[in-house]
Write a structure and sequence with these properties.
2 copies of one chain form a homodimer. By secondary structure, chain A is an alpha/beta fold. Chain A is built from 12 helices and 12 strands. In chain A, the strands form 2 sheets. In chain A, strands 3-2-1-4-12-11-5 form a 7-stranded mixed β-sheet, with helices on both faces. In chain A, strands 6-7-10-8-9 form a 5-stranded mixed β-sheet, with helices on both faces.
Chain lengths: 338, 338
């Protein structure tokens, strides 16, 4: 049985989306056990009348919720009875709980994971690795996308190893093509950190390093994992999402601006629905935190049930594939510092 | 008469696009004088039979071309007879030439502008400021987008002052809303440089600082100028362009995948043409280099005639509005270092 804990509060659609997503995941994976944290009365009420395997779900009462605007360090210190911090504490203390999923405050989750759960042997810093869909129908992981606004080339080396193992073990991509985000494709581009990282990654035998990538090629399908500092990674992911959302809005507004366009769109209903679904990050799960001692998956604050279910699936597959052990093994073998 | 020099070689569509764009600009601005650099025979041949005011155009022979893959420092040292370096040298030496436009190698242009043309009084580093269209029908300037992969908070302060003056004087935007690119909107977000810059910009009386901006909101129309380091600025601009291009390709492929979608698209021909034009960076000119002693505008390597014409227009308007003097004045007044 794989035991995962789901923080049921903190997102825009909590707790409904979290509970619905949990029940969907339970239905899908028969060796999954879920623990839901949050206000027990509310969760029980929402579960009332729903069909699910009661033997594989339990609730832990945690009445507080951490707001997105709360200072992370204060939140984890003062809100011990919040659904997130209680989940983190149980994750730390109970050996049989293998991972957790939260759609709450990112800052609080990173801080709590770092200070309470701790890191895998050899890991310097944990890193987020969200996914985006590529135009070839695949996916690309971006590591780091915001856990570390400042990095060194040693961090980038570890991000590359962890992201490569993640894409291989959780998504079955053989020899993932790992690229370094840079301002040009030629070697020697970028600042000192990028130049050093390029050298290091070129000589790393355990990854399939394919060189620098310019951000315009992120969705090209030529890359499986992109390594970057958390600042530019954050810009990369949010710009992609933002541009896609704004463009689809623009297309919609254009269609509604003239009757003849609306008539045309009647023929394309399914096409636009498919495009919308393709660009909907909810379908690609959350941002896994790589490098923590136990599995931590952060869903978007606006996650609906499908996104929460995907996040739970990600956590499940990370546990199932023994990703953590593989990361420790690779770092032990390929990441020696003098 | 405003005298601008146009490097006619180096881009994907050179020299045709450069020459066509030049003639369009000449037609448009009656007090504009253009000097074209490049292989004189080829330029003369392309001009043959064209109608234009011959009194306002001259050619300077420069047979060499700098390739995009050449090392900038080597190129400017060894390719003295190239269309770009000859243009830069004339810009430096001849008082009556106010600016130049090039669609050639960015690295060579920045290096040449820095070492040959020099900077305005008080400027620490020049910065690129390209434009993107917003969903509200306006534009947003991104400064820096690649001239400085590493910055300090003092650089960011100067970028903010220069970009604000640029958007105001060249595009007539009153009190441009200047934002700092960051990983979240709250003050205190980002690395030390961003935190320092936030403080500095908040207290700067000569700009309308509206706080941090998340990259997903770049196209929202809520900002007129965004200040960032050249690395994340490069990611911001190229991700936006890349996502837009890939999405439009995706829509096109979807339409052609089924007859019924194609039928629908027949009703929407103009709509898709408008959308394509809206997202086409060629219509928004080039990336001006702010802070150099004379005006330097860098067009995209793939610039067609319309883009070259827009670049010349940008250079023209920068000269016409005395932007350089205004930048020097503002830095003198608001940028003191102990």
């Amino acid at each position: 049985m794989i035991k995962i804990i789901v923080d049921c509060f903190g997102g825009d659609h909590s707790p409904e989306a979290n509970i619905d997503g949990s029940l969907d995941a339970l239905e899908r994976f028969k060796d999954l056990y879920l623990i839901l944290t949050g206000d027990e009365n509310i969760i029980r009420e929402k579960l009332c009348g729903r069909e699910y395997d009661t033997a594989r779900l339990s609730i832990v009462h945690a009445p507080d919720v951490i707001g997105c605007d709360e200072k992370p360090t204060d939140a984890i210190r003062l809100k011990k009875e919040s659904s997130m911090i209680k989940a983190v504490r149980m994750l730390r203390d109970e050996d049989d709980i293998a991972g957790m999923v939260s759609v709450g405050s990112t800052g609080a989750l990173v801080a709590a994971a770092l200070t309470r759960v701790g890191l895998l042997e050899g890991v310097i810093r944990p890193a987020f690795c969200p996914l985006l869909p590529t135009m070839k129908g695949g996916i690309v992981g971006i590591c780091d996308s915001g856990a570390n606004v400042e990095v060194t080339s040693d961090y980038l080396k570890q991000f590359a190893i962890m992201a490569s193992l993640y894409m291989e073990n959780v998504y079955g991509i053989q020899k993932p093509r790992v690229a370094l985000l840079n301002v040009g494709v030629e070697p020697g581009k970028g600042d000192t950190i990028r130049q050093e990282a390029y050298e290091i990654l070129s000589e790393l035998p355990c990854i399939n390093f394919v060189g620098n990538m310019e951000s315009r090629d992120l969705l090209s399908g030529l890359y499986d994992a992109v390594v970057c500092d958390g600042f530019s990674g954050n810009v990369l992911v949010k710009t992609t999402e933002g541009t896609a959302v704004e463009l689809l809005k623009k297309v919609k507004a254009a269609i509604f601006s003239r009757t003849i366009y609306k008539i045309g769109a009647l023929f394309q209903k399914k096409m636009f629905a498919d495009l919308k679904s393709f660009m909907n990050y909810q379908n690609y799960g959350g941002s896994v935190l790589l490098g923590t001692r136990k599995v931590v998956v952060k869903g978007h604050g606006s996650s609906k049930a499908v996104a929460v279910q995907k996040c739970i699936e990600q956590a499940y597959r990370m546990v199932e594939s023994s990703l953590s052990a593989k990361i420790e093994e690779a770092l032990d073998k390929f990441d020696h510092f003098e």
